[in-house]
Design brief:
Elements (H helix, E strand, L loop, with lengths): L2 H5 L4 E5 L5 H8 L5 E4 L3 H8 L18 E4 L8 E6 L14 H13 L5 E4 L7 H14 L8 E4 L18 E3 L4 H12 L6 E3 L3 H32 L3 H8 L21 H11 L5 H27 L8 E5 L15 H10 L3 E5 L5 H8 L15 E6 L4 H4 L3 H5 L2 E9 L12 E4 L1
Parallel strand pairs: 1-2, 1-4, 2-3, 4-5, 5-6, 7-8, 9-10, 9-11, 11-12, 12-13
Helix pairs in contact: 4-5, 7-9, 7-10, 10-11
The structure holds nicotinamide-adenine-dinucleotide.
The site of nicotinamide-adenine-dinucleotide has 29 residues, from α4.
Length: about 425
């Protein structure tokens, strides 16, 4: 890789996949070197050409002063000498890794790659994927030889959607290469954009493993908090009160109970489990974390039904409002949101559920989950709900007071505060949090 060729605009960098990861990365590079932003989704490319981020994370000023060309035409990738792949790596319905997009993007790159080019992966994968799955495909399609004709690297993405504090630029980035030369070149390339500096991992596999354990560690720790919450619920003790007290010790880690959705924390551990199984190891801790976290939606739904019955409200036909459906606060992303597990559980018991969210797209929710979002009924003053579940702590919801909920609830009424944001503030309604 010749960085000068890029900085002197004699060749280009291509980013494959213009999503949460690819777009900010492409725009950041485009402040320094010429970039081709490639995606198979023509609708997305059209929006990007109008300086609209389809993921709703960046405003139009993020496109200012960028040397970038968005396209869905594969031929235009031939101008590039470095390819960065940031396409989705989900799991299938059996929770097994689905590498379809990754391999298809790899095929696209392999059709354009020339001698001396680099391919760097940013998609989250299990250790070994880059060199064992992607490299053989590139060799087969391009006829080029790994390390002699082209090199690969892996640099995991650490961005956190909705987080304005930790960005690509101010967070140390792990880089790796298939040999020393590629490691140094890739480190130099990323140093153009990552002001916090790069960490050189000794191999591609180490970098892949590092990414996957960042999210696995969070998953297991949140699962522990969820398990404690189930236990403390039986004891009649508020989990957040316990965590606040325990958190005064210097080495007590700050994790909280909650729904683990999205396409990172709830998905990545399955990639590690997949690799472990190939190696004849059955990881108990990681699987237990997945089991607990995947069960939380059903658990919360049942708790609501129990509490309705305790108040002599027949759950069949009772109306419940669920506020927030995105996988986390202040984002529009509904992928793999566990809020729909709560809704399903309630529906299974005959409860009628209304659902609203200030960030999620009505069309996307309808298409993905078959649920019709309504306008927030909070100001209607119509007393129609037996319970309100605040499932996501969107900034709009943190402003609410008990009077807001009382205006739309009949008596007796229940507030389910999954994230504990109204703790200590609810005096009249029945209150429950994880
Ligand atoms: N979103 C995050 O917070 C985050 C953080 C770290 C790592 N990651 C990882 O980064 C990867 C990408 O995630 P994302 O959230 O950016 O996904 P995304 O769904 O937001 O975007 C992916 C984009 O890739 C495009 N695409 C799919 N197949 C393609 C192909 N064959 N060729 C070209 N484009 C293709 C899609 O049209 C989409 O625009 C995943 O592996 C994910 O696990 C995501």
């Amino acid at each position: 890789m010749n960085i000068t060729n890029l900085t002197e605009k004699k060749s280009k960098l291509a980013v494959i996949g213009m999503g949460y990861v690819g777009l900010p990365l492409a725009l950041e590079f485009a402040k320094h070197i010429p970039v081709v932003g490639f995606d198979i989704n023509a609708k997305r490319i059209d929006m990007l050409n109008r300086h609209i981020d389809p993921s709703n994370e960046l405003d139009s000023s993020a496109f200012d002063n960028c040397d970038i060309h968005f396209t869905c035409k594969k031929e235009e990738l031939k101008q590039a000498s470095v390819f960065i792949v940031g396409v989705p790596t989900p799991v299938n319905k059996y929770n097994h890794p689905d590498l379809t997009a990754l391999l298809s993007a790899t095929q696209t790159v392999a059709e354009s790659i020339k001698k001396g080019d680099y391919v760097i992966y940013e998609s989250t994968v299990y250790p070994g994927t880059t060199e064992e799955e992607c490299v053989p495909l590139i060799e087969k399609v391009s006829g080029l030889k790994f390390r002699t004709d082209f090199k690969v690297g892996y640099s995991p993405e650490r961005i956190n959607p909705g987080d304005r504090e930790h960005s690509l630029v101010n967070t140390v980035k792990i880089v790796s290469g298939c040999d020393n030369e590629s490691l140094e070149n890739i480190a130099e390339l990323y140093s153009l954009v990552v002001k916090a500096g790069v960490h050189r991992a000794p191999s591609v596999k180490v970098a892949e493993a590092a990414k996957i354990i960042e999210n696995t560690q969070r998953d297991v720790n949140i699962a522990l908090m969820n398990e404690l919450s189930i236990l403390f619920g039986r004891m009649g003790v508020n989990t957040y009160d316990v965590l606040e007290a325990a958190g005064t010790k210097w080495n007590f880690l700050k994790f909280y109970p909650g729904l683990v959705g999205g396409h990172c924390i709830g998905v990545d551990p399955y990639y590690l489990v997949h690799k472990a199984r190939e190696l004849k190891y059955h990881p108990q801790m990681i699987n237990s974390g997945r089991f607990v976290n995947d069960s939380m939606g059903g658990y919360i739904g049942k708790q609501v039904v129990k509490r309705l019955i305790a108040e002599k409200t027949n759950p069949v036909g009772a109306k419940v409002l669920v506020m927030g459906v995105t996988f986390k606060e202040n984002v529009a992303d509904i992928r793999n949101s566990k809020v729909f597990d709560i809704i399903k559980e309630l529906n299974d018991y005959g409860v009628e559920v209304d659902t609203c969210d200030p960030h999620a797209s009505v069309e996307d929710v309808q298409e993905e989950y078959g649920v019709r979002l309504i306008e927030s009924p909070i100001n209607t003053g119509e007393k129609q709900y037996s319970a309100v579940i605040v499932a996501v702590s969107h900034r709009e919801y943190t402003q609410f007071a008990e009077t807001d909920f009382l205006r739309i609830c009949n008596s007796p009424s229940l507030l389910v505060d999954i994230k504990g944001i109204y703790r200590g503030k609810i005096k009249t309604m029945k209150y429950w949090s994880l």
